[in-house]
Amino acid sequence: MDSYIFYGLAIALLAVSFFKDKKKTKTALKKAWRAFENILPEFLTVIFLVGFLLAVLNTETISKIIGAESGWIGVVLAAVIGSVTLIPGFVAFPTAAILLENGAGYTQIAAFLSTLMMVGVITLPVEMKYFGKKISIIRNVLAFFFSFAVAAIIGMVVM
Amino acid sequence: MKKLIKRYRVFIIVFLAMIILVLVNRPLGTKAFTITGNSILEMLLVIPPIFVLLGLLDIWVPRETMIKYMGEGSGLKGIILSIIIGSAAAGPLYGAFPVAAVFMKKGVKFMNILIFIGAWSTTKIPMFLFEITALGSRFAISRLLIDIPGIIIIALILSKTVSREEVKILYENAKAMD
């Protein structure tokens, strides 16, 4: 839904820009295309890899591994699964709700959601292209461990 | 042509792997292709306007303006702006990286870029509403309250671990991207 806002905004600003300066607008569009084409191979690889992974893993398998009784091992597994998968948010939250209904624990789900959003093992090649190896790896490692803090606190607050 | 194949070689390998999956296990392969198709659709919904907006930003907003609001010495104003821009965004984390590249080109402070990446990854406003409906406000609000200091701490640690030269190389690299 919010993607339409982006489209609307882009079209509106593009119109204003075109009205003000045709040549500049053309340069802007050229720059946009070059920036997009520059990252396209990495994008495509990531998207196909995700399709592959999600086809192999399914909700049942996941909720078996990260049930409420799975304890810290379950939390670690949840964090790992979240790190290596790439699910859009509007799919992730309802999926998390389904997993909770099917017996997953809150702590485990919090760890899963947190690493899902902050850690991206699969998107690492894209990230490295912009931020270099060192920063990308440190950022992902920090975000991974931070997710345990998130999980622990949510496990205490939400019961 | 040779250059093109070289750039896309990893993608070609993954694509071939999926075709093999279809041949070996048809239902699983079809499922993989369906999920991939949906992701591509999602990408088409999110990515093109981001790049158009980036192109426009690059052309119309002068470097001086960006530096003033988000560059070195922008202080708390820069931090808050980075969180707001990151949180207002839509789409998966990989959409944030090209934005970061333009920010680098425009002289935004590295710490603020890291905060922006953190905010984009986890405190998105549209997603927050989604999270409340799916998992309840207690869950969503607790997560948000832990995440904001977390993002800033991670950004701080990261910016302390890299040297000025390393940051400079990244900024040069971003300049060379178009």
UniProtKB/TrEMBL annotation, chain A:
Keywords: Membrane, Transmembrane, Transmembrane helix. The chain crosses the membrane at residues 43-59, 71-93, 105-125, 137-158. It comes from the Bacteria. This is Predicted permease.
TrEMBL record, chain B:
It holds the Pfam family ArsP_1. It is found in: Cell membrane. Keywords: Cell membrane, Membrane, Transmembrane, Transmembrane helix. It is a multi-pass membrane protein. It comes from the Bacteria. The chain crosses the membrane at residues 7-28, 40-60, 80-104, 110-132, 144-162. One of its GO terms (cellular component) is plasma membrane. InterPro entries: DUF318. Belongs to the UPF0718 family. This is Predicted permease.
